[in-house]
Design goal:
heterodimer; A: Alpha-Beta Plaits; 7 helices; 5 strands; B: mainly alpha; 13 helices; 2 strands
């Protein structure tokens, strides 16, 4: 690419159209006639009509753009990356986390700290788990790397706190066992399929 | 039946006018915010009190508790009294304006029983001239405020005040001249009585051009939107009120709203039948409705139309409106001579 081409900033498709403003009046009388013509056209009154119509619709049909934020919130996407949530298995109610430590490993701001041990059944058990939300940048790597869909991003985006360091523990983020029924997930990505009931079969051990 | 106007009656009327207009001017800020909000698909003030009505009190508290700030290099005396000039002249103009019909206190009221309250606090024989003069003197408020505060935006605002108010005084005066010729009196009571015969006899139908010119000039003189160049935020921060805060700023506001009411009352009395009864609607209610309409019109126009440039403002005043007003006066004179 030559320099001339590089310097040509008019790279768009030049499809500009001039507004048809009529001829610019030359004499004072012509200008006066133009003003009179524009004034006597009902354009100004049409403008008044538009605002009046908007007022009527706002008043009587409730067409308003305002969201009274602390009292009402707009629904956000399930893909929004807000405060983390720890999910449970729908069948057993046990937490999904298998203690693999990938989230701790991939965390680029080093805000996840976890410790694991073997419980009495020789299963991996999460003994310590905390996220420092003062450091977390909500990049979503932990949720992406998690093989069990155990750590996901929730929709709690009001994250003001009194201190810079704000730690959340595993139990704080875990779905409460009595709220297991209302545990929500991003549809099509770990959530129960719409026809889950039909797919349930008796396990071979039963017969 | 001729009633004698006692000093008590005049004082009561002045007190009622003062309280009513101050209250309406305060309430007007709420109405303005609400109407503008509705026209922009917003709810407007809604949180303080029912329908946000107590927003007035919240604003008042905020104004009262703000620091009374006077810039270091300003002329302290003039800076301090400039808002008083604006508010004062606005209320002085209201002294000669009929706000609602005359009435007599019923005799069972102690102290005031039987006192006749006139429709005008002081029915001076130069009524309309007095109102125009008082409103024109209101020019000194913004002018001195802008010049005393050692602020370039203030200076520009003051300069714009001078050119705008002086130019549009001419249009106001000339557009009112034709109705004055028809009524051949300067008293607003005579104007009211001239149009007492219902809607058909309103001055509006005889002088439509004068009515439109008066409305345009009224918008300019009250510093309303197509002509609000004095404190046009996009260009000159806040114009002459840039350095003002707290109650002094509030006085400018009250003066502006009182002027809006005065213009509304003038438009109603001179052109739209004044405080005469219409069918079943009593006169005071008619007056309220008409003034409310003109007040609403100012807000409506503010929500709908853009500003004009200062040079367009001057051009409009001296090359369009003033010649039209002169032509209107001449034609009115010729027609009156032919009819006589």
């Amino acid at each position: 690419m030559s320099l001339e081409q590089f310097k040509n900033r008019n790279v768009g498709q030049q499809q500009y159209r001039m507004l048809d403003l009529g001829k610019t009046p030359e004499t004072g009388w012509g200008r006066f006639k133009q003003v009179l013509g524009r004034s006597l056209k009902v354009e100004l009154l049409i403008g008044l009509g538009v605002t009046f119509g908007v007022m009527i619709r706002t008043l009587f049909r409730g067409e308003t753009h305002t969201i009274r934020y602390p009292f009402e919130k707009i629904p956000i996407s399930r893909r929004y990356r807000a405060i983390h949530e720890m999910k449970r298995l729908l069948e057993s109610g046990h937490y999904r986390c298998i203690g693999c430590g990938l989230c701790e490993k991939i965390c680029i701001s080093n805000c996840i700290t976890m410790d694991t041990r073997y419980d009495e059944n020789q299963r991996k058990e999460v003994s310590e788990y905390s996220i420092n939300f003062g450091r977390c940048i909500f990049c979503g790597y932990c949720a992406e790397v998690c093989p069990e869909l155990a750590i996901v991003h929730g929709d709690r985006y009001e994250t003001a706190s009194e201190q810079r360091a704000s730690f959340s523990l595993f139990e704080d983020m875990l779905t409460p066992i009595d709220k297991l029924k209302s545990q929500q997930e991003y549809p099509g990505f770990g959530a129960v399929s719409p026809n889950a009931d039909e797919n349930i079969k008796k396990t071979p051990l039963a017969y | 039946m001729i009633h004698e106007v006692t000093w008590i009656g005049a004082a009561v009327k002045a007190l009622i006018a003062l309280l009513l207009v101050s209250a309406v001017a305060g309430f007007g800020t709420y109405i303005e915010r609400k109407v503008l909000a509705w026209m922009q698909r917003r709810p407007g003030p809604a949180h303080v009190g029912p329908f946000g009505l107590l927003q007035l009190a919240a604003d008042g508290i905020k104004l009262f508790t703000k620091e009374d700030f006077i810039p270091q290099f300003s002329n302290r005396l003039i800076f301090s009294i400039a808002p008083v000039i604006t508010a004062g002249t606005a209320f002085i103009a209201l002294a000669a304006v009929p706000l609602f019909p005359d009435f007599t206190f019923p005799s069972w009221i102690p102290l005031l029983g039987g006192v006749f309250v006139p429709s005008i606090a002081s029915d001076v024989n130069i009524g309309i001239l007095f109102i125009l003069a008082a409103m024109a003197a209101g020019l000194y408020g913004p002018l001195l405020a802008g010049m005393s505060q050692q602020n370039k935006w203030g200076i520009i605002g003051a300069a714009r005040t001078a050119v705008q108010f002086l130019s549009y005084e001419v249009v106001t005066g000339l557009s009112l001249l034709a109705p004055i010729m028809l009524v051949s009196s300067l008293s607003l009571v005579d104007f009211n009585n001239y149009q007492a015969g219902g809607i058909g006899s309103w001055m509006l139908w005889q002088q439509p051009l004068a009515f439109i010119l008066f409305l345009i000039a009224g918008f300019a003189e009250t510093n309303r939107t197509p002509f609000d160049l004095l404190e046009h935020e996009a260009e000159i921060v806040s114009g002459f009120v840039t350095e003002y805060s707290g109650l002094r700023w509030g006085l400018f506001f009250v003066g502006e709203y009182a002027n809006m009411i005065t213009i509304g009352v003038l438009a109603s009395v001179v052109f739209c039948g004044g405080y005469s009864d219409l069918w079943l609607i009593p006169g005071w209610l008619m007056m309220g409705l008409k003034v409310s309409f003109f007040f609403f019109l100012m807000l409506w126009v503010r929500a709908s139309w853009p500003h004009i440039r200062p040079d367009q403002l001057m051009w409009l005043s001296w090359k369009v409106l003033m010649p039209l007003a002169v032509v209107n006066v001449v034609i009115t004179g010729i027609v009156m001579m032919a009819m006589a």
